[in-house]
Each structure stands twice: as C-alpha cells, then as structure tokens.
Amino acid sequence: MLRALMQILRAEFVTSAASRAGFPGEGLPEVAFVGRSNVGKSSLLNKLAQRRALARTSATPGKTRLVNFFRIERRERAPVLFVDLPGYGWARVARKERAEWQKLIEGYLDGRGPLRAVLLLLDARRDPGDDERDFLPWLAERAIPVRLVVTKIDKLNASERDMRLRAITKELGIPREAFVLTSAHTGLGVDALWSEIDALVARGEGAP
Predict the structure, then answer these.
(1) 58 and which of 63, 68, 157, 203 could share a cystine (Cβ 3.0–4.6 Å)?
(2) Contact assessment for residue 120 and residue 34, using Cβ atoms and an 8 Å cutoff
(3) What confidence tens digit (pLDDT) does each residue in 13-63 have?
C-alpha cells in the first residue's frame, strides 16, 4: 500500500469555473495541474487523491473547458486544493477556442494568491512542444514554482524510458533529476510527487 494514499481522509469536488469570477475565494493553498490533452492529468490527480472518478477522464481529448477545484484532506496535513486546468494542444479544437482556453489558464495562473506551484505534466512517450517550451519561461517571469511530472512511465521499458528521458532533458534544458516520474496505473512516483507538493506548499507558506 502506498504511504501517501493511506493518509487521504477526504477528497471532494469544490467548483468549476469558466472565468476568474467563478474562482473560489482565496483561502487554502492551491496546486495547479496543467498539460496537453490526453497527458493523463485526470488519472494522475485521481491516483493522488485515491479516488477513481474525482476528476473525470474523457474519451475525447480537449473536452475539459473549465478550471476545476478539488479539496484534498490528509491525516496530519493541512488541506490543499488541487486545480485541474484545461488541457491544451488538441488540434481538432478551433483556433479561437484554443485561444479562449489559453486566456482562461493564464487568467488563473497570473496573480492567483493561493497558488503555490504548477505541476506541468509531460507524456513519457511524446516530445515536448512549443507549448511547454514557451510555458516554462512564462511561469519563471511570474516567479511561479513549477515541477515537471512525466506521466505514463509504465508504458515504456527500461531502455525506452532512458532514451525518452534523455530526449526530454535535452529538449527542455532541464536536468533529469528535476523530473518526477509517475504512473497512474501502477502508482509509481505518487509518494515522491506528494513529497514535492508538501515541500512546495510549505515553502509558499514561509516554512524553512
């Protein structure tokens, strides 16, 4: 049994918002999940929360068009809000609609007081694109902490995994140790990711 999952006391949906006006009042620390459509964002969020359908997965990539907030409570830890941002990069969505999603994502991230960190998800089998390359400096300019999370690592064997991680590292210019490797299917990396989340939240609260 995974240590972090045993600590989950409650995980519940809070609200969905189509604009800044619908965001909940500033209170609990927030950790945002962002990534390309079909990167496995909802599955990983569900695994972290030990819930099968807290964040709804869709057979149609790019379907999620709202910012979704979830309250997570764990034993001996302060509650935190997970914020599921719309997936981006889905080619079948009209350019105007993609621009609206980008505006919604940036509208949440830019100046959101309770935001402690962004988890940028990358599919282990896919090369980073312009979206990821542009997004990292955008976050850096706003001093928003970010952690890179590689998903679906179970889909690769050992040699494939090494090759893909070297490619991602080279593409983004970020050291390999900066990535958290995860699998929503096997639970690999879930405890490590919770440790990263706890550290980021504590740092944002001014903990040493």
Answers:
(1) 63
(2) yes
(3) 999 998 889 999 878 999 999 998 889 999 999 999 999 889 876 544 555
Amino acid occupying residue 47: K
DSSP conformation class of 170: H
Give the gyration radius of the chain's Cα atoms: 16
Chain position carrying tokens 């919770």 = 194
Identify the DSSP state of 56: P
119 bridge partner residues: 33, 147
Superfamily of domain 3-204: P-loop containing nucleotide triphosphate hydrolases (3.40.50.300)
Query: Is pLDDT of 192 > 80?
Result: yes
Residue entry with tokens 């080619």:
91
Angle, CA 67 vertex, CA 114 and CA 144 arms, to 5°: 40
CA 62 to CA 97: how far, in whole Å? 10
* Domains of the chain by residue range: 3-204
Q: Hey, which residues does 15 pair with through a beta bridge?
A: 69
Q: At what angle do helices 130-141 and 158-172 cross, to 10 degrees?
A: 50
SS3 state at 196 = helix
Q: What is the DSSP string of 111-166?
A: T-TTEEEEEEEEETTS---HHHHHHHHHHHHTT--EEEEEE-GGGS-HHHHHHHHH
- Alpha helices (H) along the chain: 3-6, 41-49, 95-109, 130-141, 158-172, 190-204
